Amino acid sequence: MINTATQPIFTPEEYLANEASASVKHEYVNGEVFAMAGAGERHNRIALNAAFLIRSQTRGTPCGAFIADMKLYVEKQNAFYYPDALLTCDPGDDHPLYKTAPCLVVEVLSPSTANIDRREKRMAYQTLDSLRAYLLVDAEQRQVDYYLRGETGEWLKGRLEENETLSVECGKLEVPFSLDLLYEDVTWG
Prior knowledge:
By secondary structure, this protein is α+β, with helices and mostly antiparallel strands. It has 4 helices and 13 strands. The protein is globular, with a radius of gyration of 17 Å.
């Protein structure tokens, strides 16, 4: 006989209530919750660098820069994620626990999350009409892949090269990214 244990299914409201008092962060995908692993020093430095680059452009604007403790709700996927950094310029995107209309999302890849970030999250994030750019920053090597929404809505994939600057436009802002800026103070080995 096969044991068919089932995992409890939560509503978004139950998830948010439980998450408010949880000692470990969880992501939520269509009723299921998944504990998140902790991150190492390189991951933290890269995420902080990305958030700093975003925040440096939002000063004095109505846009908001957020880091890994802000959830992103993707309604079409019924999912809550914790991106490493995000930018929203939508004045209606004002929920205190989560955002719904980012124009830029940054995920820092680790060996345990890279496949989810490259497939599941990318597909979910790209359903957001507001999203203009999705950056995937590798924590194991100096490599940044990105997806930019084209003029007609198609997604264009690229890789940030040495000595290149990628300017991501969100609202009236332009956020510059380069390998040197994203990997500043990151040590290898």
